[in-house]
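pinging the channel bc i need a second pair of eyes. not urgent but kinda urgent?? the chain im working w is below, pasted from the shared doc
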Amino acid sequence: MITKNQMQIKAEPGRQELFVVREFDAPREKVYRAFTDPKLVVQWLGPKNMTMTIDYYDCTTGGKYRYIHTDPNGNAYGFNGVVHEATEPERVIQTFEFEGMPERGHVVLDSAVFDDLPDGRSKVTIHSVYGSVADRDGMIQSGMEHGMREGFDRLDDLLDNQ
């Protein structure tokens, strides 16, 4: 039975962190691969109305990534980071930086943990730690939640068709 999976965000006031939890109707090995294989990542990460171009994407321990989302008006938004740990199919720990900030240094530390659930399902828990409460709150206010929801819905479709 396929259920409509809902994304949950937990962001306590005054804290520099947030948690995103999402279940998928696919085993964690497939979900992990969709998070780490650039040929799959480009098909789902980000809002529906944006195209994604990968400059480089090495999701192995010590690897680096950079990608660009482009909106329908041609505005480009770059993101980059370094992978600190990639343990298949359990977890990925990486930095994340939006290149559009007026100054550099607003780096987020993301930890994505992939858990098995019954019936061939899985759960991803993302723990993001920001440099400040203001950075975290700014990310939330930017519409990040909407883009993540759309991306995860696109990932559902991708997993269904694999």
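so The two ends are 17 Å apart (CA to CA). and The CA atoms of residues 44 and 158 lie 7 Å apart. — does that match what u expected or am i reading it wrong
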